[in-house]
């Protein structure tokens, strides 16, 4: 397996005692897959992503990328956040080069590499523009180009389209599918948007809450990957199955809390 998560637990110590956020998470992801982890608030989605990114370490268990245990951040993982995290005083080209600059690439090398990925995301003409001159979707494409420039083994995405309006979000979904098919990169994203997960992914891990656990793994097989597939009954069947899973667990959590 390319990305392997094994018996992962994550606890936090609070004034009230130990809080279990993730419990016995097991995931196996092959090279070139597009995987979504879906869950409501409290399911530990962001905490899980931080474990994979190496921004935090698990209480127990492990994460491996291409057979190597994750023990901190590294260029083998590219990260895209919900909010674009672009530097407002840098133009598009400079933002796309920034990670490579931190890694010590020469000026010529990072310019060539970043320029290539700006062309991949369709923003070559905007290389000299500042972030304030871009739309929300364009800003997110710059962030994706910056993440891809390091040619990571896995692209990690933290609800990357949550801040976009519905029309921009739909166009970004189609953009991401095209990008994934052209680059064959492994993508792992978290979201609470059930339709987004079904439309984008090969497989979905449905997470329950308090603590976060994998309730079910669902393989997604759609007849096509264009916006018209959302009219198909199979698309709605997948969405209904996921919603029932998430809704059912929310009701269980409320019952336990009361």
From TrEMBL:
All residue ranges annotated as the ABC transporter domain in the record: 3-234
Pfam assignment, any one: ABC_tran
Gene3D superfamilies per UniProt: P-loop containing nucleotide triphosphate hydrolases (3.40.50.300)
Cellular component terms (Gene Ontology): plasma membrane
Chief site of localization: membrane
UniProt membrane topology term: Peripheral membrane protein
Superkingdom of origin organism: Bacteria
Keywords for the protein's UniProt record, in alphabetical order: ATP-binding, Nucleotide-binding, Transport
GO molecular function, one term: ATP binding
Matching PROSITE patterns: ABC_TRANSPORTER_1 (PS00211), ABC_TRANSPORTER_2 (PS50893)
Similarity comment: Belongs to the ABC transporter superfamily. Nitrate/nitrite/cyanate uptake transporter (NitT) (TC 3.A.1.16) family.
Name of the protein this chain belongs to: ABC transporter ATP-binding protein
Native species: Chroococcidiopsis cubana SAG 39.79
């Amino acid at each position: 397996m390319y990305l392997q998560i094994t018996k992962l637990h994550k606890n936090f110590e609070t004034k009230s005692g130990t809080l279990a956020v993730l419990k016995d998470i097991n995931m196996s992801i092959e090279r070139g897959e597009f995987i979504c982890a879906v869950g409501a608030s409290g399911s530990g989605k962001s905490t899980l992503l931080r474990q994979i990114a190496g921004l935090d370490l698990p209480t127990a268990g492990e994460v491996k990328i291409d057979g190597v245990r994750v023990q901190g951040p590294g260029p083998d993982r590219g990260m895209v956040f919900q909010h674009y995290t672009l530097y407002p005083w840098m133009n598009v080209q400079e933002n796309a080069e920034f990670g490579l600059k931190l890694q010590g690439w020469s000026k010529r090398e990072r310019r060539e590499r970043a320029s290539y990925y700006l062309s991949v995301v369709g923003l070559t003409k905007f290389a000299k523009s500042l972030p304030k001159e871009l739309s929300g979707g364009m800003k997110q494409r710059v962030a994706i180009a910056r993440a891809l420039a390091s040619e990571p083994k896995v692209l990690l995405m933290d609800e990357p389209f949550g801040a976009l309006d519905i029309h921009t979000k739909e166009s970004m979904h189609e953009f991401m599918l095209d990008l994934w098919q052209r680059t064959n990169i492994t993508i792992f994203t978290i979201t609470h948007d059930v339709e987004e997960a079904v439309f984008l992914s090969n497989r979905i891990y449905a997470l329950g809450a308090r603590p976060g656990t994998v309730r079910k793994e669902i393989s997604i097989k759609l007849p096509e990957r264009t916006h018209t597939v959302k009219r198909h009954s199979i698309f709605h069947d997948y969405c209904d199955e996921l919603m029932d899973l998430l809704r059912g667990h929310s009701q269980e959590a409320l019952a336990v809390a009361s």
